[in-house]
Amino acid sequence: MAVSTEIQAPRSGRIAPEYKRHGRSKGNFEMFAWLFMRLSGVVLVVLIFGHLFVNLMVGEGVHAIDFGFVGGKWADPFWQVWDLAMLWLAMLHGTNGVRTIINDYAEKDGTRMTLKTVLYLASAVVIVLGTLVIFTFDPCPAGAAADLLPSFCRA
Predict the structure, then answer these.
(1) How far apart are CA 98 and CA 120, in angstroms?
(2) Are 92 and 44 within 8 A, CB to CB?
(3) Pair 82, 50: CB distance under 8 Å
(4) Distance of alpha carbon 153 from the chain centroid
(5) Helix H segments across the chain?
(6) Is the separation of the CB atoms in 47 and 85 below 8 Å?
């Protein structure tokens, strides 16, 4: 009696033949997606720790964060670009990670396509709305009552 030493691939016997993926090539997309994850992760660490340091450690720390603090930060183009880069990279990084999970675990092509469509739409909505908020935010709206405006606004 011979003992088999061959280990089958994970889930190899579980997927029905009609659900197996086709062997079509995706070119270099997966390599670039892998590389993007590594590079964006490093940049995100810098952006996030910079964001946390400025918001929590500088000045009065967490006690200073209010509408006026955010309004003052977003009045400076440097912080607009900083927060925009953090938003875009975080959303694209997270979307790429979830896309990979969907590709790994969704067995049916239709399920995979539906999940990725919902993922891409949700990511696009968050990116567009976040970008609009960052660049159209006005902490000093015209016609507002002076007692409701932050201290840096001219009444």
Answers:
(1) 10
(2) no
(3) yes
(4) 32
(5) 29-56, 67-74, 77-105, 109-136
(6) yes
Query: For the whole model, what pTM was predicted?
Result: 0.75
pLDDT of res. 42: 97
pLDDT at 137: 86
pLDDT at res. 59: 80
* Residues in CB range of 8: below 8 A, 6 or more apart: none
Q: What is the pLDDT of residues 35-76, one digit of tens each?
A: 999 999 999 999 999 999 998 888 888 888 887 788 888 888
71, 150 in Cβ contact below 8 A?
Answer: yes
| Contact of 134 with 87, CB cutoff 8 Å | yes
Sole residue written with tokens 């590709």: 103
CB atoms within 10 A of CB 58: 9
The domains of the chain, with CATH numbers, are 38-141 (1.20.1300)
Tens of pLDDT, residue by residue over 140-151, are 778 878 777 777
Contact, 134 vs 80, CB < 8 A?
yes
- C-alpha–C-alpha distance, residues 79 and 73, integer Å: 6
Tokens of 147: 């007692």
